[in-house]
Design a protein that fits this description.
Elements: H1 2-12, H2 26-50, H3 68-80, H4 87-100, E1 108-110, H5 112-122, E2 125-128, E3 131-136, E4 139-145, H6 150-154, E5 161-165, E6 168-169, H7 175-182, E7 189-195, E8 202-207, E9 209-212, E10 216-220, E11 225-230, H8 237-250, E12 255-259, H9 268-276, E13 284-290, E14 296-299, E15 310-314, H10 321-331, E16 336-339, E17 347-353, E18 359-368, E19 384-385, H11 410-421, H12 435-447, H13 458-474, H14 477-487
Parallel strand pairs: 11-12, 12-15, 15-16, 16-19
Antiparallel strand pairs: 1-18, 2-9, 3-4, 4-5, 5-6, 5-7, 7-8, 10-11, 13-14, 13-18, 17-18
Helix pairs in contact: 5-7, 9-10, 11-13
């Protein structure tokens, strides 16, 4: 009863009038709010777009569906990996992984530091050991040492595999990554673990030096046959070659031996320009095949600049532009090719600079010989095969090692082979340093005006390898055969 009374009192209680107010129907109120929001948004967009002080410019990226998985994987790692990501390293790794999937040893990503070293290699000089390398099947392989470089003097040879640098394995590294470890300041030493064929790996300690990029060397003896060594094909190579040949021509040059042994290649236009010096107008030099379309044939223009007969020397270190030149002069000019089978690089690369200073080096096409042959991974077979003497491939002997009577190892066997090739008698060529080996070392030291200790180390080892190198150059069977061909004195076989 009391509750009913209280409810009635509440309901019946009069409402006191408020002050003045505007009556608005619910629908109109809603529309007013909506219009206010639209107007505010419009003014804001106008101000941000056309106003003098823009806050931010928003761009919507173009969707690349093919990269969705890559983005998803990156986000997952960035948000959930157990340690904070090094984003630069992860992104570089992703790019390298993409290039590795191409299975192309000549396609490579170079970060800023690697790119800097690459550019140094194209300049007039750099500091390092002086060897052209490439990645092949997960290993770093020597294409060719540069003439007169520490690598050549140490005995590094084409197709040697570099397994480690200063004890650090480089298996799986790109060539650019390996270069960062191998190069260094002049006067510093680097120790390479090298495998040659099926032999046991050896360690080679090489002192870095300035590596000048002088690409052409020429000489001519009484036989009037010019021996021209081209060590690489750079921007200045053509001018260097013309200068030397012109000088020798005025001195009665009657024949030319173009020596591209251990030449890893270089710039394609340079090889074309050089071939043009020795071919008649209109003769094909090389065919270039890009991704689409028919091969483009580059032909000689202007006629021969040098009319003397030419032979070409090649070996397993002759690659790319070297092979282009050899094939052009043989197939179009009839020149004999002398030596051993070349390296076999039949593709071309270009370098693209990315916005952050890194570089992308990738294959853009392949080249064919004038006859349309693709020599990739096959090489060029010489028309006259001449092998290097066996002693030219003897293994490196470490000057820091001390070989004395009683020493037994592979270096002793190599040293005995060198002594024997130079006319000394070390006894049986085996791995044991015995009395006969000691006597041979003493005889060699006497001839070199060194202390007759009978111990092979330091200056004696350097002198031994230098003497062998001089012998190889003086008794070069490939060069001698090339001169015989040009002079018409080679022995004919039926």
């Amino acid at each position: 009863m009391d509750e009913q009374k209280r409810e009635e009192e509440i309901v019946e209680q009069p409402v006191k009038p408020a002050g003045k107010f505007i009556r608005i129907k619910p629908f109109a109120l809603i529309m007013l709010v909506f219009l206010t929001i639209l107007l505010t948004a419009g003014l804001t967009i106008f101000a941000l777009t056309f106003g003098e002080k823009k806050v931010v410019e928003v761009k919507v990226p173009v969707e690349r569906a093919e990269f969705t998985r890559l983005y998803d994987a990156f986000d997952e790692l960035k948000n959930k990996y157990y340690v904070e990501l090094d984003e630069e390293e992860v992104i570089s790794g992703a790019i390298n992984g993409m290039l590795d999937a191409l299975d192309d040893p000549y396609t490579d990503f170079m970060n800023k530091e690697e790119s800097s070293h690459f550019q140094e290699g194209l300049s007039s000089s750099f500091q390092g050991i002086g060897a052209e390398i490439q990645e092949r099947n997960g290993y770093i392989m020597v294409v060719s040492p540069i003439k007169n470089s520490p690598a050549e003097k140490a005995g590094l040879l084409p197709k040697d595999l570099i397994l480690a640098v200063n004890g650090e394995s480089i298996q799986g590294m790109s060539a650019s990554e390996a270069v960062l470890l191998i190069r260094g300041e002049k006067g510093t030493a680097v120790t390479l673990t090298v495998q040659r064929g099926d032999a046991e790996p050896i360690e080679m300690k090489i002192v870095r030096d300035d590596i000048p990029i002088e690409t052409v060397y020429g000489e001519m003896g009484d036989d009037k046959i010019a021996h021209i060594q081209i060590t690489s094909f750079s921007e200045q190579t053509f001018e260097e070659l013309v200068t030397i040949l012109t000088d020798l021509d005025t001195k009665g040059m009657e024949g030319i031996v173009l020596d591209v042994r251990q030449n890893p290649g270089g710039i394609l236009p340079t090889a074309i320009d050089i071939a043009n010096l020795f071919l008649d107008d209109g003769q094909p030099i090389v065919q270039v095949q890009y991704r689409t379309g028919e091969p483009e044939i580059f032909k000689a223009k202007g006629g021969k600049q040098f009319t003397q007969p030419v032979t070409v020397l090649i070996d397993e270190g002759s690659a790319s532009a070297s092979e282009i030149l050899a094939a052009a002069l043989h197939e179009s000019g009839g020149a004999e090719i002398i030596g051993v089978n070349s390296f076999g690089k039949g593709t071309m690369q270009t370098v693209s600079s990315l916005k952050d200073g890194s570089n992308l080096k990738f294959t853009t096409g392949k080249w064919l010989t004038p006859s349309g042959n693709w020599i990739n991974e096959k090489g060029i077979t010489p028309t006259i095969e001449v092998q290097y003497p066996s002693y030219a491939s003897l293994a490196y002997v470490d000057p820091n090692a001390e070989l004395a009577e009683g020493t037994r190892n592979k270096m002793v066997e190599s040293a005995e082979g060198m002594l024997q090739a130079l006319g000394y008698n070390p006894g049986e060529v085996d791995s044991l340093f015995d009395n006969e080996t000691e006597s041979a070392v003493k005889a060699f030291q006497q001839d070199q005006k060194l202390d007759r200790t009978g111990v092979l180390t330091d200056d004696t080892t350097y002198a031994l390898m230098d003497a062998l190198r001089d012998k190889i150059q003086k008794e070069d069977p490939m060069l001698l055969k090339a001169k015989e061909v040009l002079l018409g004195t080679e022995e004919k076989t039926e």
